[in-house]
Each structure stands twice: as C-alpha cells, then as structure tokens.
Amino acid sequence: MGLFAPWFLAGLAALAVPFYVHLLRRHTTNPRPFSSLMFFERRTQSSIKHRRLRYLLLLSLRALLFALLVLAFANPFINRTAANMSGEKLLLLVIDDSFSMRAGTRLADARREALAVLDSRPAGNRSQIMALGSQLQALTQPSLDGGALRAAIDSLQPGDSRANYGELSRAVRSLSGAVPTPIELHFFSDTQKSAMPASFSELALPGNVSLVLHPVAKDSTRNWTVESVNAPGQVWDPKKTRVQAVVAGFGTPAATRTVSLMVNGKTAATKTVDVPANGRATVEFQSLDVPYGFTRCEVRIDSADGFAADDVSQFAVERSDPRRALFVSDAADSRSPLYFKSALASAEQAAFTLDTVSAGQASSMPLSKYAFVVLSDLISVPASLETELLRYVQAGGSVWIAEGAAAAHAARIPVFGGNVLDSHDYARTGDRYLNAGESDPSFPSLENMDRWSGVKFYFAVKVDPGDARVVARLADQTPLLIEKKMGEGKVLLFTSGLDNITNDFPLHPVFVPFVQQTALYLSGTQRRSGSRTVDSFLELRNSKEQSVGVEVTDPDGRRPLSLKEATTAQTYQLTRAGFYELKLASGRQDVVGVNPDRRESNLEVIPDETLSLWRGNSGTGEQQAAAQGATQEQTRPYSLWWYIMFLVFAAALAESLLADRYLVAPQQEDL
C-alpha cells in the first residue's frame, strides 16, 4: 500500500479543529424565577466540569471526517498482482500473414478460426487483432467492439514477408510488461518449420501469457519453386548474356519441370529440367534478347502444386551500348595497353570499347564522349591536355593514373596535383619485393583483395595523399591506390604500373576483375542487382545527397513516400513482391524485381512434440522460473480514492444526524 500524494498528510493537523471547537463551548444557563435568594449560601462555583469534553461520539465523527478528507487528498493505493486480479484478461489473436499462407486456403482457414474464437470470447474481455510477418503488426487496439475486431480479421490479406516466430515471442514479451491483465494468445498459422528461430529459448513466453496454437496445416505439403535466378543487372551484348535458374523441390518426388524465360510478359525461351526427389536442378538460358532501356523479366515453372505464388522469380535488366574509354600511354609502351585491353575484353559482356592513343594525339580529342580516361606511365603530359582533363574531371569525368617507372622521373603527378616524394625500387630476387597490405574492402575495385596476396610489387612511387582517400597500401604502408574527389568527378591514382615490369599484377587472374570493376566504378555504370528479396532495404541516397528528392513507385503503381520522406529518407524497405521503379537522389533511374524469401517455399511443418513444448512456454527451467518471477512482480497500483470518499459521505451524514440530536436547545432543568 502507498500514497500517490503523501504530502497531503500534513493536513492531519486539522484534527485539532474539532477539539478546539468543543473546548471553547461556553457554559450557559437558563434563568429561572425564584422568590428570594436569602436562603442561598454564597460560594464560588468551579468551571472544571464545564471544560470537559462532552458529546464524545460527535467529536469522534468530526475527527474521523477530517482524517478521511486528508486521506482522500493523499490518494492511497494498493498494489495488485496479475495473480490476484479478477477473471479479466486480454484476448490476443495473431494471424500469420506471411508468404507461405498463400498456399491453398491457409489464410482463409486462419481467418475463419479466428472469427470463431472471437465469437466465443467471454463477455467483458477485451480483444486485440495482430498480424505476423517479419514483424508483429497491430491491426486494432484492445477493444470490446466486436464489429471492428471482425472487420480487421476479414480485411487481412496475405503478405510477401517471411514469418518469424522468434519476433512474435519477443513482441509478446514486451507487450506483457505493459498489459496488467493476463494475456490469452491465440496464434493462427501454418506452423512452418523454417520460421522457427535459431534457438528454441527465443520462443519462451512470460508466465501471464497462455499460448493456444491453431495450426491450419496439419501435414507438410510438397512444393516446387524457382529458388534463385542468376542474371546480370546490365546487358551490353544480349547474345553473350547468360541467365541461370535453380529449380528446387521440397518434399517432392523426382519430376520433370518446364522452365520458361519471360521478357516483358512474353515467353522468350523454354527448357525442361529433371529435378531429383527433394532436390535441386539448374537450367541455363544462353542469351537474353531484350530491348534498350529497362526490361522486366522473370523465370517461371509450370504449376504442379497448390502453391503457385512461388513458381516465378522476377528480375530486371538494363540494356545499353558499350561505352567508350580512352587509354593514353607513351608510344614506346606496348605492354600496359595490351594487358589493360585484354582485361576489359575478357569480360563475359564487353561493357567498353577502348581507344588507345598517345599523349600528343589525346590533346586534340573531345574527352566528353569517353566514360573515363586512363593515363598510363606518361613521362610528361602536355599542358593543353592537362587543362582539358581538369575540365573533364570538374564536370563529372573520371581519370585513372598509373605511375610506372617512367612517370616516376617527373616531380609532379598531372591532374592529381600531388608531388612525387620518393620512389621505391624493390629488388626482384629473394624476398625483396612487397605484397599488398591493408585495404578498404568497401571500395568497389577491392572486392577480391584477399586474392592479391600473391602479387609481387617491384616498384612504387611515394606521394603525399593529403585529404585524398587511401584505398590500399603496400606492406610497408606506402599508398598503393588513392582516390581524390575533384569537383563533380574523381581521380584514381595507382602508384605502380599496369605492365609486368613494375609488378607481376597483370599475370595474376585477379587483375581482370580489378580492371573491370574499376572501369565500371569510374564510368558510373555500376548498377545494383536487378533482383532483391522482400523486406530488404534499398539505398536511396548517400550522405552528400541530402534534400534531393527521390521517387519510389511500388508494384501497384503507387508512390508510398510522402513529400517529406522523399527528401529525407536514406533507405526504403521493399515490403512487397513485384517490380519497383526508382528515381534516386543521384538522378539515376532504376527498376528492381523483388521476390519473397524462398525459405517460405519449404512448407514443412513443426513437429507435434515441438509445438507441445511451445504451448507450455518451455525454454530452460531457469528461463521459465525467471519469467514466472517477473510476472509475479508485475503489479499495478489501484487507487482507493472512491472508497474513501464513500466513507467521507457516510461520516458526514452521521455527524449531521448526531449534531441535530445533541445540539438542540437544552431543556430547562429542574432545580
């Protein structure tokens, strides 16, 4: 028991008031006629008797009235635990609306059972409707309004998210701390095994939560699905574009499936594939003939089960012509152009056509038509060419500078602007060469930096990077790859050469992806994957693109972002399957195909013994005891104000009746 406002207890000093009033009572007598006073003896009459308290019951009632008023203002309360409460409880109905609930009539069955439970609820118990996908979503607040609750259940549609039973238990544990009454949790689901958390202890529920499971799928269901599709996001040569798809079967017998490649809703190619029992098979399409621009594609299998929603996997591609790149080197250098051009041409799709010229020839060429420019081991750069290169970079172009042994004789690095502080000429014999050291794995060119360990560097120049970004270093901390932002463009400095004289880098397989990824990065043609998974996040802007509007169009053709979100949102969560059209803060437009998590396609159900353990809120014994103890400690203060005010009213009424009885004009007493 406690008091909400204990400082009002100071008002108990007012109890002195009725005592003071009773002691101040004046002694009065009624005069009576008498014939003569000669027969009376004169004496002094004592007043002690008159100062005694009289009407003790009335005094007690008045003191009690004052005390109760003070106590009412102090607002006393008592703590009541869930165990001491009445039969009131919260009926929590959670319906699984994950992607697997699209199979057969699962969601319809779950809604029907939820309505039956809602109709049979005890009168006076509040109910709340929630839906479970990757997160627990409240569809209503706790309510007694049966119409609103039924409408929420009827309006529930299947989603595309992956179910997460661990998230359900976590959310209910959090909810139980805010709800004073016991919770009766009814969960309507296909009890899919793939939705279980990694640890069973994550399913533990507090002691004031009772779980009632309503499985709408009693047995595992066989299902074939397009599990994954491997397709490029960008297409330059349709005849060299390969599309690989994996068809998987869950709980299925060996079968032959027909696989179709769809382009803008039309069938472009069809193949058959033999899928082993409960296994996987790969099918490959040798070309992807798509028009220029963005194209919506999908791989589809013939429907042979009750779950047709996962028989298709969507992806988007963008077709464009190969872009041109300019490679500038000295006329005597025949190695670096050969290695560089071979690396670009060895790509599965040729994204660039390379023009190789000397420094003198490049001075008169329009640079704006090139995606990027490479300066390879130039002894000197004409002033007119450097001026044009600076303008090109300031306007958004990219320049890649490789400093070989010849370029090291110059004191200054052109375009980049730094000075050559020193050059390291490492010996080729023994262990007197250097390997690549630390690097920034987030840089696009260094995705396979771990494979650089066998590359030997014999020569490198030392420069002061200043405020530029050092992307990679040699083992002796000499900067190897430096990126410098200039205006709207960038300059990438490689402090060794692109030949096999200053290093043996071009002789290693890792040289090819390094050149290709760097070329894509410098040209700005890097495109995000044409396929994503539901509930993944899409980056809309970087930290330097604030207050720039973006547009997102969802599969229904709606724009889900408000005006404020369009200028401030950093990312957007892809909550639906289908094609999204994007206009990013960088100004680039994109199309992305979004598919449900294929773990939802495995319709195997949780075994009955596991469900029995879950119904019992079983984790470990210690976790269960802790949950029970936490529940017992959960209390809610109940105010006694109204009860005290009732006593105040009763005391005031009794005081009024007694006062009328005792304080009437006293009757004349006989002498």
Give keywords:
single chain, 671 residues, 23% helix, 5-stranded mixed β-sheet, elongated, 8-stranded mixed β-sheet, Immunoglobulin-like, alpha/beta, Rossmann fold
Structure report:
By secondary structure, the protein is α/β, with parallel strands linked by helices. The chain has five domains: 2-29 and 45-75 and 656-662, no CATH class; 84-220 and 604-633, Rossmann fold; 224-320, Immunoglobulins (Immunoglobulin-like); 323-507, Class I glutamine amidotransferase (GATase) domain (Rossmann fold); 531-595, Immunoglobulin-like (Sandwich), CATH 2.60.40. Helix content is 23%, strand content 28%. The protein contains 13 helices and 32 strands. The strands form eight sheets. An eight-stranded mixed sheet has the order 17-16-18-19-25-24-23-21. Strand 3 (90-96), helix 3 and strand 4 (127-132) form a beta-alpha-beta unit. Mean pLDDT is 84; it is low at 82-86, 618-633 and 665-671.
N-end to C-end Cα span: 57 Å
Main sheet properties: 8 strands, mixed
CATH superfamily of the largest domain, by name, is: Class I glutamine amidotransferase (GATase) domain
Strand percentage lies at 25-35%
Strand order of the largest sheet: 17-16-18-19-25-24-23-21
Structural class: alpha/beta
> What overall form do the CA principal axes indicate?
elongated
Question: What count of structural domains?
Answer: 5
Radius of gyration: 42 Å
pLDDT averaged over residues = 84
Return the CATH architecture of the largest domain: 3-Layer(aba) Sandwich
Number of helices: 13
At the first level of CATH, what is the class of the largest domain?
Alpha Beta
**CATH fold name of the largest domain:** Rossmann fold
Number of strands: 32
Proportion in helices: 10-25%
Low confidence ranges: 82-86, 618-633, 665-671
